[in-house]
Design goal:
Length: 121
């Protein structure tokens, strides 16, 4: 896995896991790889994966079932969408608004452009 130097590695791993859940590669109530297994697969320190898993547990995306492992939480998809929506509103939207303003692109033009890339409003 290639990492971006502008974001903590554990958060990038958490993003990868959330993406896998949204794409239904990992389904709700399904057991996920162990810390060591995932760390070996993506070639990072197990402590980094543990930090990612802890972050995801705190955000009710993963749940620890004592003695049997970590599972995708029943409400993981809704919780991920809330987190991603908040990130978009706080981080991406201000940058997008600034870029639209600098380039003189109106909201109507943006809607037309989005439709051209098969985005359904």
């Amino acid at each position: 896995m290639k990492f971006d130097s502008h974001k903590s590695i554990y958060l990038q791993i958490a993003d990868l896991i959330m993406e896998s859940i949204l794409e239904k590669k990992w389904k709700e109530n399904e057991r996920i790889p162990s810390v060591r297994e995932l760390a070996g697969n993506i070639e990072v320190n197990p402590n980094t994966v543990m930090r990612s898993y802890s972050y995801l547990q705190e955000n009710n995306i993963l749940e620890n079932k004592r003695g049997i492992g970590l599972y995708v939480d029943t409400n993981a998809i809704e919780n991920i969408k809330m987190i991603k929506k908040e990130e978009f509103i706080n981080n991406d939207l201000p940058r997008l608004a600034k870029t639209l303003n600098v380039l003189g692109i109106t909201v109507e033009e943006l809607q037309t452009l989005l439709k051209k890339v098969d985005y359904k409003l």
